[in-house]
């Protein structure tokens, strides 16, 4: 027994001889600021990451993977702040500057009938690449992909007019940007924006799974309290949709307000915001 213990200690010591060297320490970050790394700069077929900071005032990107110096920033407009500072990387270079471009959501109108718009823009020079926003239409988030496999990226989204007449339509625009990326189905772990949004009395949540797995779809209020579990089961790969009727687990109707829906799977979690209006 003693020899076995000594042998274990000897073998264990062989795996702990490496030294961890500190390569980067960030400046102090306010507790209310979200931060991390995102792929930002294109390097051939690969992407280099940069550190980012996100608060209620602006979105900032540093000058390198391990850098405290701010190189690029975007100040949120009042309409973008109203939408909840929802800024996303497209992981696509649309203007040929070798940096990923972003889109950001905005709200116009009043709290009883917000109209959502979006803007695709460059973080490098702040220029607008493509925008959809008006007082009579609600626009979904844009998606960049090669829908028809012609080697040119498309920008697709759906929209509906105010007042809502029970119908919606898709719009597809060619970006003119060539790609060798081909569409496949399914295309990964994806959570789509619910439709309609805002909604009353019900809305549809669509999502895609890249493989069969145990998933859950849950509804939360703005305080982070679980309101209802819509799905909790093993689902096959592919596209799925679930309807929510604006009720909690007990079947009671919920009041107007902002709610969040979350998709959880094998090592993934995606969350989006929706608005219930009555």
List keywords for this structure.
278 residues; four-stranded antiparallel β-sheet; mainly beta; Immunoglobulin-like; 6% helix
Radius of gyration: 23 Å
Compute the number of strand runs: 19
Q: Low-confidence parts, pLDDT < 50 over ≥5 residues? A: 4-13, 182-186
Measured by DSSP, the beta-strand proportion falls in: over 45%
Strand sequence of the main sheet, in spatial order?
A: 1-2-3-4
The span between the termini is 73 Å
Global shape:
globular
Total separate domains: 2
In N-to-C order, the SSE pattern is HEEEEHEEEEEEEEEEEEEEE
* Quaternary structure: single chain
Largest sheet: 4 strands, antiparallel
Structural class: mainly beta
The residue-averaged pLDDT reads 85
The helix tally amounts to: 2
The portion of residues assigned to helices is under 10%
Concise overview:
The chain is mainly beta.
Structure description:
The chain has 278 residues and is mostly beta strands. It is built from 2 helices and 19 strands. The chain has helices at residues 2-14, 78-82, and strands at 34-43, 46-54, 58-62, 70-75, 87-89, 102-108, 115-121, 128-132, 137-139, 143-145, 152-161, 169-178, 190-191, 203-209, 213-221, 226-235, 238-244, 257-265, 268-276. It has a 4-stranded antiparallel sheet with strand order 1-2-3-4, with no helix packed on it. A hairpin with a 7-residue loop joins strand 11 (152-161) and strand 12 (169-178). The relative contact order is 0.09. Mean pLDDT is 85; it is low at 4-13 and 182-186.
